[in-house]
Amino acid sequence: MYSAGSYVGAGYYLRLLLTVVRGATSFEHLRTIDGFVHTSFKEVSIALRLLEDHGEWDAMFTDTKEFMTGHALRHLFVLALQHTTITNPLQIWQQFGNSFCDDLSNILRTGRLIATANGEAIEGELSYDYGLYHVQQLLNQYGKSLAKFRLPEPVLDWRNMDGPGVRNTLVGEELGYEVD
Description:
Blueprint: H1 10-18, H2 27-30, E1 32-33, E2 36-37, H3 41-47, H4 54-64, H5 70-83, H6 89-100, H7 102-109, H8 126-140, H9 169-175
Antiparallel strand pairs: 1-2
């Protein structure tokens, strides 16, 4: 099983195929398996089982979501993105998004963090948006971005709302009164 490391793109899959397909005469020949022409080198790599399929990731996240918090699952997801080859990160995000963001929906629901005025427009997806922000922050530590893994960007700007000093604005106002 090969790992894409830090670069996953068409060139990576092409090089991967060139190491196992002997006597290729064209790009189409490289993309053809048992008479079927695949649309991309990535598809061919998956079909030849040169890459891990989603069955392993489905099983792992299905098992771990039972005993890990959303915070821990997001870290695990980012580690998997960084150090392995997840062939479709968006599919994993969509499939396990509820588990990845279970702690965030509680933070938003209880008012410990107040979203901006634009938050009502994406109310049903607010915790997912905040979760994407957290995943991006973790990816930043590796010099990566959501776009590199074809994951959507957060709609809201969470930078000024996230941090130890940002909490419920009503509580903040009450605590801000000076007592003489």
